[in-house]
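User: I'm writing a short methods note and want a consistent example. For Guanylate cyclase domain-containing protein, I'll paste the sequence; you return only the structure tokens, no commentary, since I'll be parsing the reply automatically.
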Amino acid sequence: MDRFSLSCKLEHDMDRLAHIFSYYISDIVEHVLCFGGDILNITGNVLLALWTVEQNQLSDIITLVAKCSLEIQEKFGIYHTREGQDLQLKIGLSAGRISQVIVGDEQRQYLLVIGRDVDGVQLAQRLAQANEIVLSWNCWKLCEQYMFEVEIMREDEAVKLRDMRIIDPFDFDEHFYKCLDYLPHYRTSADILRAALELDPDSALEQTLRKHIMKNLLKKIDEGQPMEYISEFRTVTMVLVSLEFHKTAWVLHLCHLIQEAALYISTVIETGGGQLSRIFMFETGCMFLCVFGLPGDKKPDECAHALESSFSIFSFCWENLAETK
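Assistant:
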């Protein structure tokens, strides 16, 4: 995406890029949903999808997800644009136990997943080249290996998926319907992919879900703006806060550190007219993506506010968050 955005010189080009990226991501999202996965997070040019099942169902689900990934690469792996820049897709797969963490307060909340296998999927994705699929070593150990054609990339680290040995499509259809028994939120209706769409109105549930959406987007949704106006390209100022934790820190302690940092960072950023947009994990820590200049928040001195906020956040983390860099 970076080279593509740099090639856009006019506002019209930026709007076109926003729409291309929106439709491209939407096609991938729809494919994941059709295969029973859920979209956990989309941050910049990275999409994190999750299939939640029991331990004894993992090998079947890995087969399902591998098939989904192969189809996605076949259809969207290299996307040619009229601007001459190609969008290229890299996919990493991992499997195993993860922890779900919700941080925030009564106004805004953020859902995170943490654990060794979250680190594993990030490593696998980084090792993949354009139009490739890479499995983490744990994913490889848990799958039905006889069904996969692979290339060992690094012993005890990752394998590259070449193809699957399911030749007859009827064999996979049978496997697909078997996996649907593991995914109760999935609907086989041609029009509806998730049971949530059939739920009766529930004001308490709606208020809970609204905490996970930025206020700028909520305002547009509440005003009934068409979906095509929700996606846009804007000139903004960003602050990226990276917290690196000590490798021996316990998960519960990490959660407390992330919660403490999130509350302080969001308060400081909002005071300066910005928003804490995303929190996402990486191998040894977590990142907080803060944005100044979103719709309704545009101010003339946003760069100065960003700098002041950054200094305040740095001082707080340095003085109050032990065992972090």
